[in-house]
Amino acid sequence: MTTSTIFRVRSSRLLAGACLFAAALSLQSCTTSSSTDNIKTGSIPTGLSKPVTEMNATELSAAANRIGDAYAKNPNDKNAGLNYANLLRMTGKNDQALAVMQQVVIRHPNDTEALAAYGKAQAAAGQLDAALETISRAERPDLPDWRLKSAQGAILDQLGRSTEARMRYREALDLKPNDPSVLSNLGMSYVLTKDLKSAETYLRQAAAQPGADSSVRQNLALVVGLQGRYPEAEKIARQELSPTQADANVKYLRSMMSQQPTWAALKSQG
User: Fold this and answer.
1) Where is the signal peptide (predicted)?
2) DSSP classification of residue 54
């Protein structure tokens, strides 16, 4: 769950504002991390014309169908299962993604990566306590994994346990210093407790990292907008996106700013 940050794009919604996760369901961590953190490029069938991060809803659905066909032909292919489940989540089919990951884990019960992805699927389906348990099962004390730490943080944030969540993010940063998805998740954790100054500090750190993707900057745009600096927020939201994506994100940002109360609206989408 990068872990990425754990706020996801849902059709025309702002990348940063749709829901919490990570990094992490995030979870690279409302990771960052982005929704594609487990997409294995080499296992995606040839013929996809562009990266999934640049696809619209129709293209994502078609990609999910294509990868689903590959998985159906070889259900023992762990990577195909992971890719299929991630794309299903990106198209809002969380229950179906969970079902796929249940089968992957049955076939690979001791695989850390499969367990982590299963936890992400559980969290996306709203099974937060179960997701936290699954992620904990995936951990190995002898080989601590920053992605799992960030994923735990994203789940704990959704459970309202912000202090524990931030401990996990900082443990992740000890293992992976300055990771943008973890910093973004940490920043969004402060959004949920209305500490926008701290949130902006961490999100600016995240956005300054070489590996930061557009989802990190969209999270930053959301936080800047929530502080009333709308022109600056729109400028950030338009970076590195196509005009269509940028217009959709800015439209969503404006709608977020006009909702009363904004905080209730934000948390209801977590």
Assistant:
1) 1-29
2) G
